[in-house]
Amino acid sequence: MARALNPSERRKRRRALMAWKVINPLARSLAGIAPWWVVLETRGHRSGRPRRVPLARGPVDGNTAWVISVHGDHSAHARNVAADPDVRLKLRGRWREGTAELVPIDEAVLRRFNRYARLGPRTMGIEPKLMRIELAD
Fold this sequence. Notes:
Blueprint: H1 7-30, E1 37-43, E2 50-61, E3 64-69, H2 76-83, E4 86-91, E5 94-103, H3 107-110, H4 115-123, E6 129-135
Antiparallel strand pairs: 1-2, 1-4, 2-3, 3-6, 4-5, 5-6
């Protein structure tokens, strides 16, 4: 059973809904061009169909890419990753396959994100987490 949300979390959810309906379609189309976004493709945990979500790009260390899951375990892409960790990531206009996992926020990694990405958890986040994606060669 879902827990009751306090007024602050309710406001964040309303803002998130606006972002999903207005900003996400724009971000999805620009993700191949704009250097601050990536597109994460997961498989729907119920439908099995591909699901694409634009996310703020984080640091890439060799074959490890980082993104912020602003709503942590509450987000659809996090539930999809829990069911099937095999993902694709559109990074710099190119699709790369990898394996994703949600990890707790690490301040050292978070400091390496740009200001835009760091704003998400503070302004809209409900229990944010980091997603580490190990990219295939």
